[in-house]
Amino acid sequence: MKINPAFVEKVLTRFIRDELTKFGFKKGILGLSGGLDSAVCAILAARALGPKNVLALIMPYGTGFAADVKDAAALARSLGIRKKTIDIASQIDAYFLRFSTKSRVLKGNKMARERMSILYDFSAREKALILGTSNKTELLIGYGTIHGDMACAINPLGDLYKTQVRELGAYLGVPDKIMKKQPTAGLWPGQTDEKEIGVGYAEIDAVLFELVDQRKSRNEVISGGLRAEVVDRIIALIKGSEFKRKMPPIAKISSRTVGHDFLYPYDWGK
Amino acid sequence: MKVFLVQMAPRLGDIKSNLDRHLEFLDRARKDKADLVVFPELGLTGYSLKDLVPDAALNPVRSPIFKELLAAGRGMSVVVGFVEERGVERGLFYNSAAFLADGKVLHVHRKVFLPTFGMFEEGKFFAQGRDFAPFQAPFGKTGLMICRDFLQYGSSYLLFAGGAEVMIVISAAPGRGIAGPVGFETSHMWELMGEAISYFSTAFVLYCNRTGFEEGLSFAGGSFIYSPKGELLVRASDLNEEVLSCDLDIELVREVRKKWTFKRDERPEIILHSLERIIRRHED
Questions:
Q1: What would the pLDDT profile of A14-59 be if each residue is shown by its tens digit?
Q2: Neighboring chain B residues of A269 at a CB cutoff of 8 Å
Q3: Rounded to whole angstroms, how far apart are CA atoms A207 and A257?
Q4: What average pLDDT does the structure give for chain B?
Q5: Which of A112, B95, B134, B189 has the greatest count of CB atoms below 10 A from its CB?
């Protein structure tokens, strides 16, 4: 589970630079929330591309997240990256005025997709490639909004567990204020990931590491000392979210089909 | 003998630009008076070709690309990685390494062990090679391996038994594992193999890996050369493109074999006898 953060920084900054160059981009764009993952991604991007080539969009809903907005803006300033703050309340409110709901999850998902929509719009306006900030923990347990915060062009953080992102963040000098924050998807004020999932990241990551990286079975993980109910819950989350990690299945009826046997590399000719 | 290992990042599916870069490196190598220049696995095409494999295939005897490589490499020995298809075996595509010297293609090795598991899918797109045959290179008896071939230790044994004094491994190995003190953990695995095989084969081991990213895979670099004493002579950096150069004294093989008689004492007929028994038992 431990990482060599200096080497990880080297690989990930190269990855960002290489992917952008291959696809003819100079600039990267990302959503900056004031939390750990997007802070780490912003630092990597600033080091990979130069601060002037990174645009951070800070996209709060209304004024409920003022502290996060402040932290995000302060980080952008200290990194010397460009930033733009866009309050998404007017478009979100306009929608829910027509289709009202009490579900905080529905509202949260809509906000995540609104941010995605703005990121893609600015990606085209600015000719900047979107850097994803979903970590390995979120991807595996499906703790993210499909076509929302999970949407991006490239993802430098997707093979690092949350605890590893934290280790990398400490090495990269993420400000204390952000390091010490409770992780939150920002779906509503006061929400935290760990409360919503019902398990702490340290425990989730320990289970995921055994299941995924060490390829251990459920019973092996449990006899290794991890709680059975947590292991079972995490296995259920992984299984239930496979659809978020895949392109949609295409009904195969011809001899050569996109996704099945029309197999070309992503970086074809790049 | 001056050796250049070209640790480069090819462009996926763009033979023209990869050829141009090969020619530039060869030009530079000739100016620096290199005797042997080694390029990585599938250096002319890139690694993750998938359905591009048939479009990238070259016949080393007829292809104008090989004519250019032979011309640029004149006076030197050159190892290049490419997709091979011959006129006599149409529609069979191999992941191959060609050894060029004296204006001709001296030898071609077709990768035998095609990794097909987890993120690797070579067996889906390539035909399997069938032999490990050392050949007489200008500087001595030489054997070629491609990436995974080297991790199956039967491969280097066959080259050793066949008399190889120099083993050249070309590679496109993606790095995995970030807990180690330096570089990817898998880079250490390759070095362990290099040390062990060079030591017990009393032969030079030259490992040329590529660098760059494809499909999110980070090719690790870390090319190296081990002496017939099992000593690390040079190692390239992780991740960077670079030309790793080293002067090798081929006479060292003789020196080491005077002391360590692994080669003299080798009994391939006993190995063969045992292998036949093992295979018979498999068939039972």
A1: 999 999 999 999 999 999 999 999 999 999 999 999 999 999 999 9
A2: 11-14
A3: 37
A4: 97
A5: B95
List of chain B residues whose C-beta atoms are within 8 Å of the C-beta of residue A262: 51
Domains and CATH numbers, chain A: 5-194 (3.40.50.620)
B270–A contact, CB cutoff 8 A: no
Q: How far is CA B21 from the centre of its chain?
A: 19
**How far away is chain B from the Cα of A184, in angstroms, using its nearest Cα?**
27
Looking up tokens 């360590």 gives B260
CB of A8 within 8 Å of a chain B CB? The answer is yes
Share of chain B above pLDDT 90, in %: 96
Q: Write the ipTM.
A: 0.92
Give the closest-approach CA distance of B120 to chain A in angstroms: 13
**Placement of tokens 């995924």 in the chain:** A212
Domains of chain B in start order, with CATH, are 2-283 (3.60.110.10)
Residue A83: what are its φ and ψ, rounded to 5°? -145, 155
Tokens, residue A56? 């951070």
Q: B247, B14 in Cβ contact below 8 A?
A: no
Could you tell me the two tokens for A35? 């939390």
**How many residues does this entry show for chain B?**
284
Backbone φ and ψ for A129, nearest 5 degrees, come out as -85, 140
pLDDT in tens, A225-270: 999 999 999 999 999 999 999 999 999 999 999 999 999 998 887 7
Residue A64, SS3? coil
pTM of the model: 0.95
Chain B interface includes A15 (CB < 8 A): yes
Looking at residue B119, its amino acid is M
A188 pLDDT above the threshold of 90: no
Q: Is A14 on the interface with B (CB under 8 A)?
A: yes
B284, pLDDT greater than 80: no
Per the CB < 8 A criterion, the answer to whether B106 and B99 are in contact is yes
Q: Is A260 on the interface with B (CB under 8 A)?
A: no
What pLDDT digit, counting tens, does each position of B151-178 carry?
Answer: 999 999 999 999 999 999 999 999 999 9
Of the partner residues B51, B218, B238, the one whose CB lies closest to the CB of residue A263: B51
